[in-house]
Amino acid sequence: MRSNASHRLLLPMLLYIIVAAPLALLGDNTLRGNRLKASGRNMYPLTAASPQPQPDTLRHPVSPTITVSGYDKPLRSYRETLLLTNGTEREVLSIALTIMYIDMQGRQLHQRTDTLTAKIPSGETRMVRMSSWDTQRSYYYHRGQRPRTANVTPYDISCRVEFITLKPEKND
Question: Does residue 76 form part of some domain?
Fold first, then answer.
């Protein structure tokens, strides 16, 4: 008798699950019919704004425009630093440099091109930092402090400015 009573309760529960579960999965219609329609008017009218001047980009600028100096990367350093001097009439916003790393026998160790964001006013110098190419931390710049550790390799660099981005001129 007991098993018959439990079957009578089980059957309605299964029917409820079979009918109610798919209804719960349908989700709500948040559009509430077709009440959301595009109006014919522009909510944000366009105004005739003066166009913003775009920055200028100089590819392979002549040498006096940007001077690269003061490079350093000590042994086991995660960063390289160098000094950039702006010789242009306008502020520099960014600069792309290609740096070639050369061992003391003249063989290329590595080469990379990085674009650096560096706001440098006209006629001024700024220090920029970038992550080191030396992932093994076993190279040091030969003009820097010589480490006391053995089995490390000195290197030199060659640097070329690929392009600079200048702040737009102000039109008065």
Answer: yes
